[in-house]
């Protein structure tokens, strides 16, 4: 029996070190279904390692990850993806020499109708005008959108985004933020987004998880997090 709060994802007592470096340190955190949750923290606080542990790219030294109550610790990445947990990477993983449409077709969608899935997600990210263009010719921000569309081809219930706003011009930052909001409201998806700029994601997120030294310092609404003394001192340098 679970007595604690159960989210769509529950990370419990998770740890992982690299040599002597404790990258994730007894981390317990959860993400509510159909929320947009931000994960912030200074460089090296364990954000990417946490994503890699959740998505099966890395194995933990101890602890577990539950997705909708199912223990997925130790599962292969493809099996976790098929279960409904998708992610993007810090560097958008797109094939420069392929058109946008071809990029989407490389993803094995669970959708019976591949053409329909391609149309649906290309138009969802508003890149249908570029369907036959090479991905290598897109701007950095458009490549982020294409990376999100590729992840959406898997029709995940939870999507993890690793710094989608990094290096993106300000106009597209707003477009990407609006897209994430639509993923929640129109598609009922849950979003967990990493950023190291608290300002960039405060207005977008319902809650922020603050990671410091591989563990959760606090999790609360952005307005509360911004006023927290520990965050102001240790992270914002205020
Ligand atoms: N493959 C690895 N080998 C050795 N050390 C690693 C490896 N991956 C991460 N680390 C170390 O673990 C710690 C956490 O790194 P991680 O990339 O998870 O942090 P982060 O919060 O995502 O940082 P950033 O904001 O810079 O992306 C860092 O000290 C990092 O050097």
Automatic annotation (TrEMBL):
InterPro entries: AAA+_ATPase, ABC_AA/LPS_Transport, ABC_transporter-like_ATP-bd, ABC_transporter-like_CS, P-loop_NTPase. Residues 9-238 form the ABC transporter domain. The keyword Transport applies. Keywords: ATP-binding, Nucleotide-binding, Transport. GO terms for molecular function: ATP binding. CDD domains: ABC_Mj1267_LivG_branched. This is ABC transporter ATP-binding protein. It comes from Halomarina salina.
